[in-house]
Amino acid sequence: MTDATTRDTVQREAELYIGGRWVPGGGTDLEVENPATEQVTGVITQASTGDVEAAVAAAKAAFPEWAGRPVAERAAVLRRVRDIVAERADVFADIINREQGSPPKLARALHVDTPIAVVDATIAALERFPFASEIGNSLIRREPVGVVAAITPWNLPLHQVVVKVVPALAAGTTVVLKPAGLTPLAAFELARAFDAAGLPPGVFNLVPGSGRVVGDLLTRHPDVAQVSFTGSTPVGRTIAGVAAETLKRVTLELGGKSASVVLSDATDELLAKAVKITVANCFLNGGQTCTALSRLIVPGHRVEQVEELAAAAAAKYAPGSRLGPLISADQRKEVESFLEPGAGGSAAVTVTSPVDLPAHGFYVTPTVVSRVDPDSRLAQEEVFGPVLSILSAGSDDDAVAIANNSIYGLGGAVWGTDSDAALAAAARMQTGQVDVNGGTFNAGAPFGGYKQSGTGREIGEYGIADVCEIKAVQR
Hints:
This protein is an alpha/beta fold.
């Protein structure tokens, strides 16, 4: 094992959480690297196929009792989980800082405080959720689907787990979680929170491991009723195909290429706000968010003005302090390939300057590229790094058309002085979420995408509904 620097504490996790107990893992060990130091910060034991079988069996056995619990009891358990996570917020933030590289303030605000808000919103949604309703002589029942396999990504190692697991538990399903191999450590701490909160044995199970082994087995397993996956679109297609063999339900939260559209009536003040917030959103988490506003679409006659504003905003994101590293050397190489000549089209020009990067860590220069061809690789593919493209539009209709010129449809933004016109533009954007004039994240609103950004919706009552079957009882 590589020696860790004094900045890193090596977290050892040799046991898995299955059936309400911590049991020795049967797979091989996996080192977890701190992307800011390039040193080992954790070692986990992965699950074997036998461990996965045991976890699914435990979840299946626990399902009837958990599904039958009154809503008030499930809400009480989740409230205890929320309080424990809040009490241990600094512990979670430290783990995420080490395994994901997020700077300390961001590790707390984005990676811990946001999922706590999601738990709060989910509990509120659970207490008002219509598990039973009526249509004429029919009683409509919404019933938990069964065992849910949650497969989560590395970019938001606590948040992405919470948005899948907590609504599923609220609905009455039981869960088997496979966290990302690059960032599995926060999931172990969350398992401890579930255990301390008194979650019944088997309701939540933790089986880390590779997608090819653990993920594939969960996706194929006949006792898994639904797979909820967040990750790349190519992997999502594979999971959907495999799950179809047993007609499993799937929830897929995949890639994005979100557009921030500035309408022609935007004032100089609103334009400045739009650029500042778009840069901040694009560079959030090192650019490693699926909803990153990575395309800024502006009126053609204002491109030069936007270039100056964007370059000034980007200059404030110093790598190593405000801007964290990419997750790995491979990811850094991939992001750098988008900065090669021709990636943004023949007319593209970089408007930011190179900066000094830390001696260690997988950092890249925060970059703004202007006059990008809407059909170029830079405008069409998900970068997953701190790279913003500026595109020009001839009219507001043209701007919306450019925004919709993508296989993705996850996030987006619209900026306009006339709020009715801005809302109308938002309505025409083919995407799952749109922020108008800086609208902020809502922990209770549905989250998911159009087109190849995925299927299904997560968070709050929509996350609960996503793991429920619907039954009509005539009387």
